[in-house]
Write a structure and sequence with these properties.
Largest sheet: 8 strands, mixed
Distance between the termini: 18 Å
Structural class: alpha+beta
Strand content: 35-45%
Length: 183
């Protein structure tokens, strides 16, 4: 696995705690935009110290191959995070599966950046990691997010009722899946 990947317009990086300030900047810029789609966060979440700790934990899970988070930058500006894609709960053995999560800067939506980043992430998961299945769970009202995964070939496997507690409320999620038939 590489630490840096490039697409036509983006740089995707595995980062360490030295990027904590850039990560905090991203979350502060997008705090109100992301609230609707994420669990409630304590104010500590928006501090450099908290993000350093999170990035350290993230590095450990990446090292033991149980997750991969790639932070997204435009290729002309590596000093500003515009989003992230994460592949979590990587399971080996007979399952060969993971869960996909992603987020993008409010000022960068509808430009194809997250689709481009996820497309590269899928390639990494299927080719480098040898996974068979990627799962994305999306709230039915998150139409933009559903369009992203549909464009990438994910299909609907059903509705999970009250699946995750988002912004203080148990939310239903559509279970979207992409299979790698080459494994």
């Amino acid at each position: 696995m590489q630490k840096v990947y490039e697409t036509e317009r983006l740089i995707l990086k595995v980062v360490d705690k030295s990027y904590a300030e850039l990560v905090v900047d991203y979350y502060l810029r997008n705090k109100s935009f992301l609230e609707e789609w994420e669990p409630i966060k304590d104010e500590d979440f928006y501090t450099k110290q908290y993000q350093e700790e999170q990035l350290d934990k993230e590095s450990s899970t990446i090292e033991n191959n149980s997750s991969l988070r790639l932070w997204v930058f435009k290729n002309e500006n590596e000093n500003k995070v515009i989003g992230s894609i994460g592949f979590n709960n990587i399971v080996r053995g007979v399952f060969l599966s993971c869960h996909l999560g992603y987020k993008l800067d409010k000022d960068e939506i509808n430009k194809g950046y997250i689709t481009e980043a996820i497309r590269k992430g899928i390639e990494i998961m299927f080719i480098e990691f040898g996974l068979h299945r990627i799962e994305a769970n999306i709230m039915p009202r998150n139409k933009r997010s559903l369009r992203v995964v549909e464009k990438l070939g994910f299909y609907n496997e059903g509705l999970a009722y009250k699946y995750l507690k988002i912004n203080g409320k148990w939310e239903d999620h559509i279970h979207m899946v992409l299979l790698n038939d080459k494994v």
